[in-house]
């Protein structure tokens, strides 16, 4: 695992948005951030899942989170701008954004890639991330140490047979991260990406249905890097794709 010692109150009084916060890695990141003192804004498309994460955080006595139900497949630029404005008016600042939500699409031979799958994956994994990041960057600049964290994959820096649009979308994700990091190099905002590595979630199970999931790292296991990039210990780190395991 990434070598970082999580400390109590690591994220005290930070305001952090997590996309795809209802399930998998995003759910775990939201709960972990809240447990370390952050107020988390839970963005996702399935309201019941977000409500259950909200309940878990409140029941544990962590700072009360906020819920933003939004389907990134259909959301427009204006949705993200309105959300960023609401965050600023409710919380006064935004310190971090974990852009975690994405879809796998279908794993197929290259010549069999469906145009619709390509469009859907690129919409959710690339265009929506761009529109969201455009709205969030000004909000993150209100923080002394704003951190935007994208989510890549091993297929985001090296193409792999059959991974089709998902792989292309993760290459674009790393490119977007590098572009923002370079453009905001002389500001308080840093941009990085995480490659989570094989992690026991629903997405992993749909990509590898036959494997023994018990042998995989859990979302909880990979949290050190997720916390590090939101904490002030990483203020000098930008433009990097780091491996969580
Ligand atoms: P999951 O499929 O378990 O969770 C993805 C989350 O994103 C879900 O909460 C899902 O919502 C949400 N989401 C999907 N589509 C949309 C949408 N259109 N609008 C809003 N929210 C949406 O995936 P993981 O937790 O495994 O993956 C998290 C990230 O890590 C992804 O970016 C993935 O590419 C990356 N990754 C994961 C690896 C792994 O082994 N698990 C390996 C490498 C990278 P809902 O629950 O409502 O469907």
Automatic annotation (TrEMBL):
Gene3D superfamilies to which the protein is assigned, alphabetical: NAD(P)-binding Rossmann-like Domain
Keyword Oxidoreductase assigned: yes
Signal sequence annotation: none
Highest taxon above the source species: Bacteria
SUPFAM superfamilies: NAD(P)-binding Rossmann-fold domains
Molecular functions per Gene Ontology: oxidoreductase activity
The entry's keywords: Oxidoreductase
Keyword Oxidoreductase found: yes
Stored Pfam families: adh_short
Recorded family membership: Belongs to the short-chain dehydrogenases/reductases (SDR) family.
Protein name, per record: YciK family oxidoreductase
Organism: Thalassotalea algicola
UniProt lineage: Bacteria, Pseudomonadati, Pseudomonadota, Gammaproteobacteria, Alteromonadales
């Amino acid at each position: 695992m990434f070598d970082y010692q999580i400390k109590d109150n690591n994220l005290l009084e930070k305001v952090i948005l997590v996309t795809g916060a209802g399930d998998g890695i995003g759910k775990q990141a939201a709960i972990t951030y809240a447990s370390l003192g952050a107020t988390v804004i839970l963005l996702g498309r399935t309201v019941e899942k977000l409500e259950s994460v909200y309940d878990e955080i409140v029941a544990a006595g962590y700072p009360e989170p906020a819920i933003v139900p939004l389907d990134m497949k259909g959301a427009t630029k204006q949705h993200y701008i309105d959300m960023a404005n609401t965050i600023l008016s409710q919380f006064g600042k935004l310190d971090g954004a974990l852009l975690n939500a994405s879809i796998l699409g279908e794993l197929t031979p290259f010549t069999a890639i469906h145009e619709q799958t390509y469009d859907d994956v690129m919409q959710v994994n690339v265009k929506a991330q761009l529109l969201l990041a455009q709205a969030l960057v000004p909000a993150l600049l209100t923080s002394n140490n704003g951190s935007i964290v994208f989510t890549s994959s091993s297929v985001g820096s090296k193409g792999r047979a059959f991974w089709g649009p998902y792989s292309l979308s993760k290459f674009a994700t790393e490119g977007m991260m590098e572009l923002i990091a370079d453009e905001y190099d002389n500001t308080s905002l840093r941009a990085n990406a995480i490659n989570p590595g094989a992690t026991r979630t629903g997405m992993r199970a749909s990509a590898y249905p036959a494997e023994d999931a018990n042998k995989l790292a859990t979302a909880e296991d990979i949290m050190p890097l997720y916390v590090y990039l939101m904490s002030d210990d990483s203020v000098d780190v930008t433009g990097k794709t780091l491996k969580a395991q």
